[in-house]
């Protein structure tokens, strides 16, 4: 199992342990990833408290009337297609800033290009950064063809890592064509955060800045091939992803990259996604402020 596949499998097991997924659904999703019943059961047990009793669902997040950070000024997105490798056609959502200071590639979570990630592209455009939210399920007809989010996740994790990275580089090329002369950044979330780190670790000289949100750092990752100023976003309660944070910080230091790490207190994995159960509005607002400040320094 490749690292990103392992990451997604562990995420499913963690969601079960925290009461977000019933056992039957967790086993179904792990089966879609290719895990047999024995391996899936063992993974659920490893991520649970050890007594195999049903987890208690967390209390619902407090409701808030505040709009998600950046939404008030967000601009609309437009569906686009653009060329990928080997003559393939890729899909995405484009948001053009009126007077762009830079441009940002938005890399989605493991369920594909959802309305949330389109909204993030629109928020960047409203803040002055033209943005392209990629759809890494383009080869399957796009995320919209999936009625089962778990099937979309399985299709993503079944895509070879080199193909995913190639599609992201094609996205950066398209971003450069649509925002000529502007510095480029990349912001990814969860699965997309891991892909952002992979982009940096596999060498992306044209990337001026990056802000990966709670993404796993690749095993033995080396950032010597990039010059991107990097702001790593983490959550204090996200023990699984935080386990790779020291390696990320050490790699950033070795590469001599401008960098900073922000850890949101009292927040868990996926705290920025206002459509999810772990949304934490205060943490999301502060993370957004830091990202916009970071791009203001390194892209504008």
Topology of this structure?
Layout: H1 3-17, H2 23-32, H3 37-47, E1 78-83, E2 89-95, E3 102-107, H4 115-126, E4 129-135, H5 149-157, H6 161-178, E5 184-188, H7 191-201, E6 207-210, E7 229-235, H8 239-242, H9 245-255, E8 259-264, H10 281-298
Parallel strand pairs: 3-4, 3-5, 5-6, 6-7, 7-8
Antiparallel strand pairs: 1-2, 2-4
Short précis:
The chain is α/β, with parallel strands linked by helices.
The CATH topology assignment of the largest domain is Rossmann fold
Shape: globular
CATH level-4 homologous superfamily of the largest domain? Alpha/Beta hydrolase fold, catalytic domain
Question: End-to-end distance, in Å?
Answer: 40 Å
Kindly state the percentage of residues in helix: 25-40%
Q: How many domains make up the coordinates?
A: 2
Annotation field: number of helices: 10
Q: Could you describe the largest sheet, including whether it forms a barrel? A: 8 strands, mixed
Structural class based on helices, strands and sheet pairing:
alpha/beta
């Amino acid at each position: 199992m490749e690292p990103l596949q392992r990451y997604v499998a562990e995420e499913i097991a963690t969601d079960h342990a925290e009461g977000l997924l019933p056992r039957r659904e967790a086993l179904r999703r792990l089966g879609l990833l290719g895990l047999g019943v024995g391996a899936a059961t063992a993974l659920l047990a490893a991520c649970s408290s050890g007594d195999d009793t049903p987890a208690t669902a967390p209390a619902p997040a407090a409701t808030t009337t505040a709009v998600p950070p950046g939404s008030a000024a967000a601009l609309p997105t437009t569906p686009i297609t653009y060329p990928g490798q080997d003559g393939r056609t890729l899909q995405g959502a484009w948001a053009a800033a009126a007077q762009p200071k830079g441009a940002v590639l938005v890399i989605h979570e493991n369920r594909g290009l959802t309305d949330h990630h389109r909204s993030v592209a629109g928020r960047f455009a409203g803040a002055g950064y033209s943005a392209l939210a990629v759809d890494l399920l383009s080869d399957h007809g796009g995320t919209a063809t999936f009625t089962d989010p778990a099937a979309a996740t399985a299709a993503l994790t079944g895509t070879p890592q080199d193909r995913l990275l190639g599609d992201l580089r094609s996205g950066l090329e398209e971003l450069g064509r649509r925002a000529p002369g502007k510095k480029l950044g990349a912001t990814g979330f969860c699965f997309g955060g891991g892909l952002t780190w992979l982009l940096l670790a596999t060498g992306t000289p044209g990337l001026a800045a990056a802000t990966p949100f709670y993404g796993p750092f690749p095993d033995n990752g080396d950032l010597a091939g990039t010059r991107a100023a990097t702001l790593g976003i983490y959550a204090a309660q996200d023990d699984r992803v935080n386990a790779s944070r020291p390696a990320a910080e050490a790699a950033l230091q070795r590469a001599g990259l401008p960098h900073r790490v922000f850890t949101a207190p009292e927040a868990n994995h996926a705290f920025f996604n206002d459509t999810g159960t772990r949304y934490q509005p205060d943490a999301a607002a502060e993370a957004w402020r830091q990202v916009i400040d970071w791009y203001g320094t390194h892209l504008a």
